[in-house]
From TrEMBL:
<dbReference type="InterPro" id="IPR006860">
    <property type="entry name" value="FecR"/>
</dbReference>
<keyword id="KW-0812">Transmembrane</keyword>
<keyword id="KW-0472">Membrane</keyword>
<protein>
    <submittedName>
        <fullName>Ferric-dicitrate binding protein FerR, regulates iron transport through sigma-19</fullName>
    </submittedName>
</protein>
<feature type="transmembrane region" description="Helical">
    <location>
        <begin position="78"/>
        <end position="97"/>
    </location>
</feature>
<dbReference type="InterPro" id="IPR032508">
    <property type="entry name" value="FecR_C"/>
</dbReference>
<dbReference type="GO" id="GO:0016989">
    <property type="term" value="F:sigma factor antagonist activity"/>
</dbReference>
<dbReference type="Pfam" id="PF04773">
    <property type="entry name" value="FecR"/>
</dbReference>
<feature type="domain" description="Protein FecR C-terminal">
    <location>
        <begin position="245"/>
        <end position="310"/>
    </location>
</feature>
<keyword id="KW-1133">Transmembrane helix</keyword>
<dbReference type="Pfam" id="PF16344">
    <property type="entry name" value="FecR_C"/>
</dbReference>
<dbReference type="InterPro" id="IPR012373">
    <property type="entry name" value="Ferrdict_sens_TM"/>
</dbReference>
<feature type="domain" description="FecR protein">
    <location>
        <begin position="108"/>
        <end position="202"/>
    </location>
</feature>
């Protein structure tokens, strides 16, 4: 397919899913973002912004709704209004088709047990892990390519030496020219991790800078300021995309937080300050019940279902309460 026609096809498919109520929350947010961006780009159309919105939706609905008696709906006519929206996108509205002109950033979010793969305006792709978010500024790729991450994501970055790609979280910034890498930066976890699968990145922490090449990983602890760089099988850092839970040097509290992100459970953990032991164990597509059963034998925790919650006591907490 000719590359210049691919955005139009993607937009038509997205609009069809939107009207059929089959769009994901993230896709719906993108369409809503386009509509909300019309205010500065409708001078060539008659009527107000809301009328234009309704006319576009009415035109697309004609394509997806059943025809009434004696009425035939033309495919070309049905997409005429969709084409209007595509033209607007081509002039600078659509964040995912052309570089946007909206002042508002675009935000991607995932809920419990969800992952999301999206293409950024520069052609790079990002996959968000559960309970993660990515903020894409409105001026992305005009002067620089910078995004804000909370949680965990895998990036496959399109090379553009003139516009370095930067990922920032609350404690560090990772800069790349063109590579694939994974960043784990969940709030509440003591260690941030950057793993390079291919290419090279630069990671900046307060007062320090590190250069990582493929098969290298940086672990950084914001509270202590400690950071260490090492060689590792970094390909395993993306295993979460295949429903793998990798508890690599995790405390009990960090494991329980991860379970809450990936499963529809609410956990109340009772622990003691002395519960700082770290564990290494991997699970692949296991139920939360099976995982907790294994962790009982490994860590000595006890589990008590109560009012829709899972009350979990560490071994040291249970001993103190006797």
């Amino acid at each position: 397919m000719d590359k210049k026609h691919q955005p139009d096809s993607r937009v038509k498919l997205l609009l069809q899913r939107y009207l059929r109520r089959e769009a994901t929350p993230e896709e719906k947010a993108v369409v809503d973002h386009w509509f909300n961006s019309l205010e500065d780009n409708t001078t060539s159309f008659s009527g107000d912004r809301e009328s234009l919105r309704k006319s576009i939706l009415a035109g697309i609905t004609a394509r997806t709704a059943p025809a009434e008696k004696g009425i035939r709906v033309s495919y070309r006519q049905a997409f005429r209004y969709a084409a209007m929206l595509i033209i607007l996108i081509g002039t600078g509205i659509g964040m995912f088709v052309k570089y946007g002109r909206s002042k508002a950033p675009l935000e991607l979010h995932t809920g419990r047990g969800e992952t999301l793969t999206s293409q950024l305006p520069d052609g790079s792709t990002v996959t968000l892990n559960a309970m993660s978010s990515l903020v894409i500024p409105a001026d992305f790729a005009r002067s620089e390519r910078k995004v804000l991450l909370s949680g965990e994501a895998f990036f496959d970055v399109t090379a553009d030496p003139a516009h370095p790609f930067r990922v920032s979280d609350s404690s560090m910034t990772t800069t790349v020219l063109g590579t694939s890498f994974n960043i784990r930066a969940y709030a509440g976890e003591s260690t941030r991790k950057v793993a390079v699968v291919s290419g090279r990145v630069k990671v900046e922490t307060p007062g320090n800078s590190f250069t990582l090449q493929h098969h290298e990983i940086l672990q950084y602890q914001p509270l202590s300021g400690k950071a260490w760089q090492s060689h590792a099988d970094t390909a395993g850092m993306r295993d979460w995309q295949d429903a793998v839970l990798d508890f690599d040097h995790f405390t009990i509290a960090e494991m329980m937080a991860a379970l809450e992100r990936h499963y529809p459970v609410h956990i109340v953990l009772h622990s003691r300050p002395a519960d700082t032991t770290v564990y290494n164990i991997r699970f692949h597509k296991e139920s939360v019940e099976n995982i907790l059963g294994v962790l009982k034998g490994l860590t000595g925790i006890t589990v008590h279902p109560l009012n829709g919650q899972l009350i979990i006591d560490t071994k040291t907490y249970a001993q103190q309460m006797k």
